[in-house]
């Protein structure tokens, strides 16, 4: 090996040694990490004990604040639906009564028309019988009546 290569290797080793951290720095960093982990553990324990109660309270308050108006609105919609149903039933009853009245009118009209045609049939039958028996109507001439 050349002298130059050895010098370069020594320089790199020296630079690496300078950049190496001291044991005291590593111990100080570990101590800080331990204290922060302990603080984090205390915070987690505190959250673990307080958080369920806070979440329960928040959910209860949220449901109370949001569900009560929704319940009122649902009750109002239920009332309006009931009112609409009652009105529709009343309209249905009125329509049925009107339909029955129209059917009664139609039945009366059919009875009147059939009775009229029966009367016409009786008259025609009487006239036909009179023509068949020869006892037709007497015809008077106007000239004879004047004399």
Task: List its salient traits.
mainly alpha; 3 helices; 90% helix; rod-shaped
Enumerate the spans where pLDDT stays under 50 for 5 or more consecutive residues. Answer: none
Overall geometry = rod-shaped
Total domain modules: 1
Largest sheet: none
Helix content: over 70%
Q: What proportion strand? A: under 5%
Mean pLDDT: 84
Task: Decide which structural class fits the backbone.
Answer: mainly alpha
The termini sit apart by 181 Å
Number of strands: 0
Spell out the helices and strands N to C.
HHH
Put simply, the count of helices is 3
- What is the C-alpha radius of gyration, as a whole number of Å? 58 Å
Describe this structure in words.
This protein is mainly alpha-helical and 147 residues long. It has one domain (3-117). It contains three helices and no strands. It has helices spanning 3-19, 23-133, 142-146. The longest helix has 111 residues, at 23-133.
């Amino acid at each position: 090996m050349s002298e130059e290569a050895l010098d370069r290797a020594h320089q790199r080793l020296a630079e690496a040694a300078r950049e190496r951290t001291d044991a005291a720095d590593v111990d100080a960093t570990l101590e800080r990490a331990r204290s922060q982990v302990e603080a984090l553990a205390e915070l987690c324990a505190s959250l673990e004990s307080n958080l369920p109660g806070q979440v329960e309270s928040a959910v209860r308050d949220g449901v109370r604040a949001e569900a009560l108006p929704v319940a009122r609105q649902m009750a109002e919609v239920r009332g309006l639906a009931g009112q609409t149903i009652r009105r529709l039933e009343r309209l249905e009853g009125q329509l049925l009564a009107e339909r029955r009245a129209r059917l009664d009118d139609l039945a009366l009209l059919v009875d009147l028309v059939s009775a009229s045609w029966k009367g016409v049939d009786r008259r025609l039958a009487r006239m036909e019988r009179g023509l068949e028996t020869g006892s037709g109507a007497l015809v008077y001439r106007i000239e004879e009546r004047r004399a």
